[in-house]
Amino acid sequence: MARIAGVNIPTGKRVPIALTYIHGIGSDSASRICEAVGVESNRRVNELSDAEVLAIREHIDANYTVEGDLRREVQMNVKRLMDLGCYRGLRHRRNLPVRGQRTHTNARTRKGPAKPIAGKKK
User: Fold this and answer.
1) Overall pTM surpassing 0.90 (yes/no)
2) Where are the beta strands (DSSP E) in the chain?
3) Domain boundaries, the chain
4) Where do the record's region annotations for Disordered lie (predicted)?
């Protein structure tokens, strides 16, 4: 099992698909990594040699922010918005949608399960 950026990537899948299991690498980035390292996109992870896995690992370390560092950076950005007290920061603080979605109905993913209000029968 290949281990890249602290993540065990699945061995039976094609290399670009397996690389997307790393937080911070999507399908486009994964295909670019394969091109840069010189790995064919139709090869499987278990067919890679140790040198190729090492080359992929070094390329990701040098050019991409992934996993823990990326999560930390995103959390710091959200915390900065909350400390500033800007509109987006207030929305984060109140656990409401940040990007302009309506909240009268919907927004259940962000707000959580509906809380019943006493005496609100119609």
Assistant:
1) no
2) 2-4, 7-9
3) 2-64, 68-111
4) 94-122
Cα separation, 23 vs 12, in Å, equals 19
pLDDT tens-place values along the chain, 122 residues long: 788 888 899 989 999 999 999 999 999 999 999 999 999 989 999 999 999 999 999 999 999 999 999 999 999 999 999 999 999 999 999 999 999 999 999 999 999 998 888 877 76
From CA 98, how far away is CA 110, in angstroms rounded?
9
Q: How far apart are CA 96 and CA 102, in angstroms?
A: 10
Domain 68-111 fold is: 30s ribosomal protein s13; domain 2 (4.10.910)
pLDDT (tens digit per residue) in 102-112: 999 999 999 99
- What is the rounded CA–CA span in Å between residue 63 and residue 72? 17
Contacts of 103 by beta carbon, 8 Å cutoff, 6+ apart:
96, 97, 111
